[in-house]
Amino acid sequence: MNPGDPILARVRGATRTFPGRAGPVTALSDVSLDIRAGRLLVVGGPSGGGKSTLLNLIGLLDRPDVGEIEIGGEATGSLGADGLARLRRRVLGHLFQDAGLIPRMSAGANVALPLMYQGVAEGERRERAAKALEDVGLGGRMVSRVEELSGGERHRVGLARALASAPAILVCDEPTASLDAANGETMVRLLREQVAMGRAVVCSSHDPLLLSAADDRATLVHGRLTEGAPP
Amino acid sequence: MKRLDVFRSAVWALAAHPARTGALLLALAAGIAATTFVASVIGGFSKEIDRLAFGAYSTALVIRENAFVVDRHGPPRLADARPLMQQVDGATAFAAWADGRAEVWRGGESLRFDVYGVAGRYIDELDTPIAAGRYLSHDEVGADARKCLVGHELATALGLSAPPQTLRIRGVSCEIVGILAEARSRPAGRYSNAVIAPLAVTQRYFLDRDSLAPGEVDWITLFMRPGSSMDEAEIETDIALRSVRGAPQSRPSPFSYGDPNATLEQQKTQRDLLARLLLTVAALSLIASLIAYAGMAGAALASRQREVALRMSAGATGRDIRAQVTIEFLLSGLGAGLFGLGAGASLAAVSARVWNWPMILNPAIALSSVALGLSVGLVVGIVLAGRAAGLPPSLAARA
Question: Residue B294: beta bridge partners?
Fold first, then answer.
């Protein structure tokens, strides 16, 4: 952790509980951490430890029951659903474990999706989507449908979509989990490139390759932070 | 998000799942087609029943002498027709008739038949096509021409084939200019064993009765514009006729008005019952299709929860999602309305051709079908759009 890098997101005392058959299940308990620009933070820990829940909170896909998430200096607790959506489209990019592409849609249309919700004109959208695909090495796949892509290509399209709107924070849930070694290496390289460009990248992962490439590490066990990145 | 993009996204969502969209569209279109079909059929069917049962009398008033009053003013006169045409609102034409019986001997056997003398526009009331030859012309009916038409039953009995031929009635010859075919309606069946000739000629030569003075007729038929109120027509006619004939308005009318509406009403009750039955079946079909449509729409949206959440993760607001889903279902409703209208109208056209009755597809039915599809699409769309907009964006992270 380099204290000199600007903080793009803060998590303070975040607790998230879900209803369960045998009573409420605490997925995250009193977690606090900072996410800094130009750093790759990898959150590790056993399955069920709360990694995905933490990433959902940082990515503004969910809200903590207790605690506060601050993104780009803006407290999110008082924001409504549309306010969170606007902040998501402005600051955040998401890469999901299965890439999270919309089936039956072309790779280019998937990548252009965040730009469409930003109100970017169609021509510019197409150009920026093509550029984003080129950046991840898929320049010729603009019109290919999701079903025509390999697993590795889908992940790279997912990354291109996450980066198309030039977000300050990139949130990646297990980005290498379903990739073979070669594709995993490519993904790690691409993520490092984003870090080098000054973005904050937050990933959940068990992958030793990704963990070794991390600038900062945090470990979640039973919803509690046991290692790394305390504020 | 721009409006055009919302529209494009909605169209994409429908086009991306053709089987699901097709099933959704068919579910609603089936109900709309059923109601369109029934509405079209009922209109044509009712008209056909009226035509078969009443022929020209479904929109006509038949004026006769009222034999049951003390102050009698004699039968209607041919001369009464003109003032009636001028004074009765909605009167479009008239025909005046005198009838009687006659006989001819053929092969030692007596053949008895009816003789009708006619003036005015008789062809509508005759309501029977020509099998051979032609109708009596307007000039022939108005003049003293000894020309006549023969009903198909009488023509067969007399062994008549193609005109011109001659028939002698009461010793006076009459040139047959046409032989009638089978009647199109029940009332017109009376002309099948009859001879129809101009009124003046008939009264002078062919009728063996002295109850009618020259110019008097057995009845006058006043044809009304379709849709006219027959009750009002009867009142106006009675006032006009009493005035012409000097009959006081305060006394019971010396004329009777065969009110086809009386029997028509009875027939209408039965027809309306059938119409209601058909409409009930159509309404049930529509309800079933609405339930199917709503259920399929709900299932379609449920299967797209992840897509909706992924759009949210990409920055879509609740308003963006609501707009897209509403337009999706509005478009599917519009499609179902148009498809249902086409299918229902085509089915009605085929039925009309097969069963030989007129099909009535008026603009109101067409507009209602499309409006129904749009309304259902809008309501279902609004409900499901609200549900979609309320989905948690965290669903995007669930593979």
Answer: none
